[in-house]
Amino acid sequence: MKENGSDFMNGRKIQTQKITYRDENDRIISKEEFDRLVAQFDKEVDDAYNKEADAIVERINRSAHTDVEKLWKLFDYLTSEEMIYYLERTDGGFAINEGYKWNGHTHFLIDTRTKYPVLLLHKGVCENYSLAFADLANRLGIPCRQITGFTSMHHAWNVVLIDDEVKHIDVTYAIMYRNTPKRNYFLNNDLGKRRIDSSLADLVRDMRKQEIAKRVETNLRASKGESTEPRIRILLHPSTEPSTEPRIRIK
How far apart are CA 248 and CA 136, in angstroms? Predict the structure, then answer.
């Protein structure tokens, strides 16, 4: 919170603003305590997201075998009916949200320009969905990047590298246009009238480096007699509670 005050400069009275920091009980606290609470909130958000992400990756790795199958499982989940395109307002062609309330917090909001709202709140705009898709695809071992450009407004979607070929995936459009087949926005190599902000060649070069590194690691593990299956293994059903259902379900 900012409180107005006054000060003097060169003999003239000027208006100044004093910043006060408050916790979620509206008590005034020090800047150090406020920074500690912010860091604690950020860690809580990150830990919760990673828990959900690990569960999704585990489920997909169990049920899909090829990269295309894994991408489809991920795409199908992120475009399911429970996912919402959430937009408060626009400004000059950009989607604008003030922040996302989460888990009972009142003073601290999830940053709007992050991957977190998609898994924790099942909503967001193109930037959120494309960041989440890229993060999860890369956790699955599939080179994927967010790409930004212009359609009818400023937009963000994803590119993936499959068999050394670049394909486009647009989670947000599949959500926004549910009256059309979602496969229209999955592994598409036709940009249509879209304009890209960054160099696609640079993104492809970066993804190819990742793919080469993945192959080297796989070959090295195979030469040592180690399993080349994904290393992530998350116990979704604790042995002490065999009836517990996972929070994330993927068909």
Answer: 14
Decide: 125 and 87 in contact? Cβ < 8 Å.
yes
| Phi-psi map region of 239: left, alpha, beta (phi>0 left; psi -120 to 50 alpha) | alpha
- DSSP helix/strand/coil, 17: strand
Output the six-digit token pair for 220: 């090295």
Of 188, 81, 64, 43, residue with least CA distance to 137: 64
The pLDDT of 218-231, averaged and rounded, is 54
Residue type, 5: G
Q: Would you list the domain boundaries of the chain?
A: 27-223
Packing angle of the helix pair 126-139, 67-78 (nearest 10 deg): 150
CATH number of 27-223: 3.10.620
Which residues share a beta bridge with 159? 145, 168
Q: pLDDT tens for residues 118-148?
A: 999 999 999 999 999 999 999 999 999 999 9
User: What is the C-alpha to C-alpha distance for residues 34 and 172, in angstroms, rounded to an integer?
Assistant: 35
Number of other CB atoms surrounding residue 47 within 10 Å = 9
Q: Give per-residue pLDDT as tens, 152-197.
A: 778 999 999 888 788 999 999 999 999 999 999 999 877 677 787 7
Cβ density class 189-224: b for 16+ within 10 Å, e for less: eeeeeeeeeeeeeebbeebeebbeeeeeeeeeeeee
Count of residues making up the chain: 251
Max CA pair span of the chain: 79
Instruction: Please give the model's pTM, rounded to 2 decimal places.
Output: 0.74
